[in-house]
Amino acid sequence: GGLRNSLLVAPMPTASTSQILGVNECFEPYSSNLYLRRVKAGEFIIANPHLLQDLTDRGLWNPTVRNQLMRDGGSVASIDCIPDRLKELYKTVWEIKMKDVIDMAADRGKFIDQSQSLNLFIADPTVDKITAMHFYAWKKGLKTGMYYLRTKPAVNAIQ
């Protein structure tokens, strides 16, 4: 499927623009549900606004949940009071299989006549893992196998 030159698009990460607009970069999953924003006035902890709204609507957002989210590096996976549906919805990119990310990129690719800046996230990359992902992306027909490879930092920014 797809039509040549039907849309003339090339989705890109837009890191600076996403920060200004308060949204996540392009089509990427969130790397954390909490992050630290540094500005001239100081440092601020920012929560995923969609998660914050869902937890607030259910009466689940409180200092205990916030502190656990900080301890767990922005992951909701081990917070007992959060329903499984929300845990599934708010997985971080580190908790999502990269095969699924590549599959979604292939699904989008039918409607992208240029290419997309696909970033892949592997906590502990090896040559075998990266090679397998590149071949999988190639077999799925992606024009770009990987724009950036993101790895986990040695130390988390928020704890």
Automatic annotation (TrEMBL):
Q: Name the lineage.
A: Eukaryota, Sar, Stramenopiles, Ochrophyta, Bacillariophyta
Q: What is this protein called?
A: Ribonucleotide reductase large subunit C-terminal domain-containing protein
State a single Gene Ontology molecular function: ATP binding
What species was this sequence derived from?
A: Trieres chinensis (Marine centric diatom)
A Pfam family assignment:
Ribonuc_red_lgC
Instruction: Please give an example of a GO cellular component term from this record.
Output: ribonucleoside-diphosphate reductase complex
Please give the superkingdom of this protein's source: Eukaryota
Q: Which family does it belong to?
A: Belongs to the ribonucleoside diphosphate reductase large chain family.
Which InterPro entries is this protein grouped with?
RNR_lg_C, Rrm1
Where does the Ribonucleotide reductase large subunit C-terminal domain start and stop, copy by copy?
Answer: 2-148
A biological process term (GO) from this entry: deoxyribonucleotide biosynthetic process
